Amino acid sequence: MLDQLKRARDRFFGARESGTSVPVLDGPLKPNHLLENAEVFFEATGLEDLCITADGCLMVACGSSVLCVDASGKSQTVASLTEPIQALAAYRDGLVVATSGTLHFIGERLSRKLFQIAKPPFVGCINALCAHPDGSIIISEGSGRFGYSEWTKDLLSDGASGRVLQYLPDTNQLRVLKQGLKYAYGALVDAHGGIYTSESWAHRIVQITQGNASSVFQDMPGYPSRLIKADAGGYWLTVFAPRNQLVEFVLQETGFKQAMMANVDSKYWIAPALSSGHDFIEPMQQGGVRQMGVLKPWAPARSYGLVVRLDEGFQPQYSLHSRVGGNHHGVTAVAEFHGALLVLSKGASKVLRLALSDIK
Amino acid sequence: MESSGAFNRVRYKYWPDRAIGELLSKNWMETAVPLLVLVLVIAVFASLVENFLSFTSISSFLREGSELGLIVLGLSIVLIVGGIDLSVGSIYAICNLLVLYLVHVQEWSAVSSIFVTLLVGAALGAVNGVLIGYLKLRAFLTTLVTLIVLRAIYNLIQFKWAVGIASTLPDSSLWEYLGSGKFLGFPVATWIFVVIAVCFHLFLTRMRGGWRLLAVGGSRRSAYNSGLPVSSIAMLAYVASGVFTALAAMLFAARVDSSSADTGLGLEIVVLAAALLGGIRLGGGKGSAMKAVLGTLIILIVTNSLRGLSVQAGFIRIALGVIMILAVTLDIRWFKNRGKAIRELYVSPGYLPMPKAASLSGATPYAVNNKLGDIELIGLGQVESPEDVILDVDDHLYCGTRHGDIMKFHAPDYKRMEVYAHIGGQPLGIAFNSNGDLYVCVGGMGLYKVRRADQVVEKITDETNRSWNTVNDDSRLRLADDLDIAPDGRIYFSEATIRYEMSEWPIDSLEARGNGRIICYDPRTRKTQTVLKNLVFPNGICMVGDGQSLLFAESWACRISRYWFDGPNKGQVQIVIPDLPGYPDNINRASDGNFWIAIMGMRSPSFDLAMRWPGFRRRMVKRLGQDEWLSPNINVGCVIKCDLSGSVLESYWDKGGENHPMITSMREHKGYLYLGGISNNRIGRLRLEGTDPHFIQHPINTR
Predict the structure, then answer these.
(1) What pTM, to 2 d.p., does this model score?
(2) What is the ipTM of this complex?
């Protein structure tokens, strides 16, 4: 009721929450075709996350196994788990890997150690990990209600149950750094020990300090996800789906939204997606009608490929794109490896390779 | 609330959203709104105030109204050229005093006094006019200053002359007649006002000067560029305002015969409120005599009635202020954004529960394949928007393009292309009659014919009978879509929607209402008659072959129906396929006696759901730009074949929608299937195995 009144007020005075407008891709976010034209480095079904271990090996989470991929693209299974892997990070001289609600340690010292974070019956929704210099692990959990694969449901349910956690393996302690986030997706620790995460449904990156979350980069034209440090200073940010005016509108249409979640297969919801355009049952918007055999580049997008380079102050410097109608959409992870940027497109289930010297 | 089907069905079936939107888009609505307010005001106060309708009260009311009305007319002229005149109250006071002084003290004749007063009014208006028109000062500030200065002057001379005026009585029958005389039972002042208002109306609507006023107010720059003397027109508007005010002051003086310190005090607010309430725009370029009159009457009734109810003067002022704020809000929110508001109100989605779509799974005739994935393409990049394709007996291929041409591709290789005929509007469905003349449905134009002998384009019909129960005139054909010709020569064609133009047809998909119809043209009587109404985007039309019935497709309802136009079942409609998985377009005969149906796009579950949420769609239309609206998925289509009973036999798909997206028509001809699409730049050609290699859909009668 209060929401309805607020919306009525906002509509009367214009903009604010009632607005369906979306920031445009401009300035450092000006579209290009770098991601779409990038060389395919590695391809497998079920790709999820990337990391580089302390000894410089590239580790790829793929389905329920961890693969070690060399510079030529040859892969070798390092570990196999019983559940799909949702995130991984280098930890000391090994790896820490997360399934839906459990941390698994792989490597020498802590090998085979398990730690369960999710409390049944909820399966958990860990989606990013990062090692803290003090030996703890920073964990982001997207939602407290829906599993990782049900992220659109969390979005359409106005989800605000994400958490950032800190786990100390030595003492087996788990601390909640911040809860009530609108889908925490990504974990980053900067050189001074500051902890950051992306708050996807709020379209911003936040710094977590003593139970508070403060924006460091906001009003993004998409839903941000994982973050890593760039070797040359600054950060890489992946944006896994674009914001769309129709989706912004549907998010405000409580009744329709619920009817859609109840009656329609989640693939065909009016919601962002990791890839789109391959199924003619998907919802479409009028700007997306092919004219004379051409899909207009400004057509409204359900999925998009976007990687943003941020400076030390989390301000965007430049970006890599795969535009509407392209294939390399739904980017969820990046890594710097042998002078190249590896980009994991979950939508296309490919790892792309761009020489760092080519993309500035 | 909204998800409950029964409520929505009733709400969206009987509540006249559509009629309201159409009514509001009429131009005369701008005058109808103040008229409605007037009726309301009369109704309210007639029940509250005693003697509201008595003859004496009406008579004095008319005298007062005429004076106020004259000033409102004057101010209207200024508002129409895009200015504002706040000094009317002071000019009014000065002229009032002046004419009294001349008649009472100087004992001039009434005629010369009035003449001089009008001149002074003109001169005072000219002060404003020169400052604003030629020196380009801001109208608001300038007239605010003259308001104050003239009021000060008035106070000085009023103090000197008041005693003289009060102590003498004029001896002039004309003066008396003006003040209290009657003609045909109505006060003289009222007659003067009526004559002036009528002249003002004629001037504004029928004469060059009036048009120039509107032009300057509508767009000053354009008026200047087209050579109008903008400065002098603006100046003259203020002069006119001064004269009208002087005239009103003179009538007031004749009626009351005395002056007081507060004559005309606060008058500008009353006058401005009246003009705005009547619907005269602050921004300029809009206004009429009728609006000024209506606004005056409303204001007068409100103030007089409040006075009659012995409300304190302060409260009346407050009421006026509130009315003015409301009027300004209306002015900004409605008149300024009228186009947008109408567009928002015009689209009126309906409730359309879609039946469950037929399955596309492997075991069904709809199973997705890629038979159209690598078909031969004709005219790639040479034709744009070939909605329908057709072949003649010599195998030449014809199609329409969005440039308004009928193109002809020469057999046998279809490489050579020429413009067969230029029509001007976009050709949609096409058919040959038995003489080989080409009949074409042209979007936005109607039904046309291209003669075989000399390729001359002739209009066959562009209107049908008007329905008695619609707000908008629906006799004109807006979107004639597809046609077929009965054996006796009658032409049946569909009009997809009566509410949108050719370029706007996607909007109709969001309405999902019965906006379309099937129309019959009879060449023997040359009469055009609507035969079926309230169809949901009727599209393809195809004769069944029994001379009595035809099949037609309703795109947004995803169904195929059969309609009997003759024989024992005449007038009946029977649904043949109720649950297509996509949006049907054209229907044509196949060589084996079955029917081809083009499916221009596929249903998506979210869009189907939205069909049951009219409010959702209405808000979407209001709040999002057109490119962002939900749309039927028309990037991938297919062709299906069905028999007369409605069982689907097979389907042909272009799975990726790359080679031949959006199929709107297909035509079987001598063992090949030719494909057209309204958003394509190509025509497809598919070899059909095992079909009659001599089949022609429109054989020429050799009789």
Answers:
(1) 0.80
(2) 0.89
